[in-house]
Amino acid sequence: MTSEALGGSWVPEACTLPTAEQPLRVAEFDGLFAEGLLGVERQGPTELELVLKASCEVVARELVARESECCSFFGFVFSGGDDGELRLRVSVPVARVDVLDGLAARAAGVLA
Fold first, then answer.
1. Distance CA 55, CA 14 (A)
2. Within 10 Å of residue 74's Cβ, how many Cβ atoms?
């Protein structure tokens, strides 16, 4: 698996999503980040919190539900934040930290 920040893929080899669909899923995350990402906060090696615009909640929930189907190691928890923000906590097991690193780098790249 590669986890290059912006040029490569952070999709793990264990992903059950058909290979041809993987770039489309990455593009969906990129779209969510471009549309509504307000912040990225690393909570620890295996946890990341994404701060999103509340207006992106439906899209975010639908996307992570589909992502959970192909990469069941992800944990996703939504909560409300201050000022109507939506917080999405993403967790992975230690063996999948490289995937979380790639997702974090991709999100941070949008904010840069």
1. 32
2. 18
CATH code: domain of residue 68: 3.30.1360
| Domain annotation covers residue 41 | yes
CA 27/CA 7 separation, integer angstroms: 13
Q: What integer best gives the mean pLDDT of the chain? A: 84
Q: Could you give the number of structural domains in the chain? A: 1
DSSP summary character for residue 84: G
**pLDDT per position as a tens digit, 75-92:** 999 998 667 799 999 999
Within-domain flag for 32: yes
State which residues form the domain around 91: 26-111
Reference 48, options 62, 33, 27; nearest CA is 33
Structural Rg of the chain based on CA atoms:
13
Per-residue pLDDT at 7 exceeds 60:
no
